[in-house]
Amino acid sequence: MSEVAKSITVVEVAHASEMQEDLRRKLKESQKLDGSRIDSVRATVLSSVVSESYDRAKDDLRAYVEHKASYPAFQVRVERHVEHCCDLIEAIKTKRNFPGLASLSLSKQQELHERVLEHFEELKQNLKHVEKVERDHKLTDVRSTVWVLKTLSFTVAAVMAVAFFIEVNSGMLMSSVSVAQGLLDDASTWVVGYLPFLH
After folding, report:
1. Closest by Cα among 97, 102, 95, 91 to 17
2. What pLDDT, in 10s, does the model give residues 12-61?
3. Are 94 and 115 spatial neighbours (Cβ–Cβ below 8 Å)?
4. Tens digit of pLDDT for each residue in 132-182?
5. What's the alpha-carbon Rg for the chain, to the nearest Å?
6. DSSP letter assigned to residue 104
7. pTM for this one?
8. Contact criterion met (CB below 8 Å) for 127 and 83
9. How many C-beta atoms surround the C-beta of residue 141 within 10 A?
10. How far apart are CA 119 and CA 18, in angstroms?
11. Are 42 and 128 in contact (CB under 8 A)?
12. In the chain, how many H helices and how many E strands?
């Protein structure tokens, strides 16, 4: 190999490395602009993708969905999105580690990097959708809990009202009848005592 060919290869490799570093920087910036909570699944997966830990990103996403076993409908609703996210992660991996990237023309390398950025943005959108579905399920769960508590409190109030009515009807009502009958007897005795013609 001639000296000129060696120097061209060195320059191409250096330029490819420079472009890879530029892509990594753009991905980090895009992740920072995302504004997701640091402990969210989106932040975890995107961070793994930026650091080129693709298998970990897919494992974290799948583990997150499996962890939500208490919401079976959640798993069904996000299954399609999770698979699409895994496909996007794999596409990013393939394009970032494209064999012979340094031998491609600069425009082709740039095109691959643009596709990686597009896949990354699409991945963010799909992860946002997964988080939205989770929030919807949590909200539904809270609403159903509130509904159950309201129903329970109304039921307890109704049972207490019926118990009070039964108590009044069986205990106090009979006592009231006895008291009224005693008052009526006393009143009739008093009336009889004041009427002289009845003696």
Report:
1. 102
2. 666 666 777 777 777 777 666 655 666 678 888 888 888 888 899 999 99
3. no
4. 888 887 888 788 888 888 888 888 888 888 887 777 666 666 677 777 788
5. 39
6. S
7. 0.63
8. no
9. 13
10. 21
11. yes
12. 6, 0
